[in-house]
Design brief:
Elements: H1 4-19, E1 24-40, E2 43-61, E3 64-70, H2 75-89, H3 126-138, E4 147-165, E5 170-186, E6 195-202, H4 213-222, E7 233-239, H5 245-254, H6 257-261, E8 282-284, E9 307-311, E10 314-315, H7 322-328, E11 340-341, H8 350-355, E12 359-371, E13 377-388, E14 391-404, H9 405-410, E15 412-415, E16 425-426, E17 430-438
Parallel strand pairs: 7-12, 11-16
Antiparallel strand pairs: 1-2, 1-4, 2-3, 4-5, 5-6, 7-17, 8-9, 8-11, 9-10, 12-13, 13-14, 14-17, 15-17
Helix pairs in contact: 1-2
Length: 440
Amino acid sequence: MFTQAQKDLASQAMDLALRNGCQAARISLYNSSNTSFEVRNMQIDSLQQASENGLNIHLFVDGRYGSISTNRLNINELERFIKNGIASTRFLAEDTARMLPNESLYYKGGKPDLQLYDAKIQTLQPDEKVALAMKACEEIMDKDPRVISSNSSYSDGRNFSYLIASNGFEGETVASFFSVNAEASIKGDGDARPSSWWYESSLYFDELIKEGVGKRALERALRKLGQKKTASSKMQMVVEFACSSQLLSPVINAINGAAIQQKNSFLLDKKGHKVFSDRMILTDEPHLPKSSGARYFDNEGVATQHIKVFDNGVLNTYFIDTYYANKLQTAQTISSPSILTMPSSNGKNCDDLVASTDKGILVTGFNGGNCNATTGDFSYGIEGFLIENGKITQPINEMNITGNMLTLWSNLLETGNDARQSANWRIPSLLFDNVDFSGS
């Protein structure tokens, strides 16, 4: 948490900016710290500890915009620093679209604490953290003769920020995080070295799943033994919840204000139109307590709202900040989503979706590839398992899926009930129809 003296320093920086030629300014005071213990084959491989604090100062000067930052938080040094920043900003090209949000859009306060911070982070001892990393590693080492290496880590951190703007905004956020990660590498056929990972995370230490992380990573690696290509075909595709958000990422990028303004989006001019399957129901739920990504305001101070991004395949909104709203001469929303949720269409988990698939592929990972932001055409390398008659029959790799995002999401058949609740994007396992797979 910031002391009143630190907040007063931010206010003084604001006053300095306004007194020295800015018509408007926004000040962001931040402090973050994190630790990480990494273990390799039951030996501590690395320790990282970092702490950072500073000021970001956004300057709006004579129709021009500049951003400067410093970690030297002394009021005497700040005055010279801000004056130089203002002088430098005056050399930039005029861009009248750069301005603070309308004050009516700001979060006004008064809502309940989102409970994003666990004070226990201040009392955890290094040996407790190392023990958790060691445990994840131990769950892999010597558990199978084919194990080549085991990597694991424990990480935690806390982040504080304080934001003020010259037209009346003031807001503060505080959050913590904890995570345990593991990766197992095993000897396969010939030169093959299958590997896999798993992780658990939480905002609260006592709610962090601390056991079974390494075991899950090893099990996932062992399932890959005997991977090979299968015949090219158009089949159904089940995408496991652990990687389903990667298919959503191009969609979210396509509804970002920058993409819309630059006409670099396959969802350009699609707002209010049905573009995807009825099963595509995606909601931004920013006010979920004790949830990663929860917030009452975005990075400009604009109040967040519960909103259906897609409703039965209809695109309802773009994510447009002040700058791009002015460029597009359209209404502002917020700069980015907070917590994206997708409801289950059937109450099924990934195993159930597999069981309902006569012929298809379960995708458990993406290995490179790209999506054309303008057209939506994509090609991704994938790995996973062949599904025949509702059962997994063969691990596969070195295959690709190709197609177009508009077509892919129009062929969304089912959404599962197994989204990772600790993630910002809570996207469950997904079942798609008519996906082009290329292999042998």
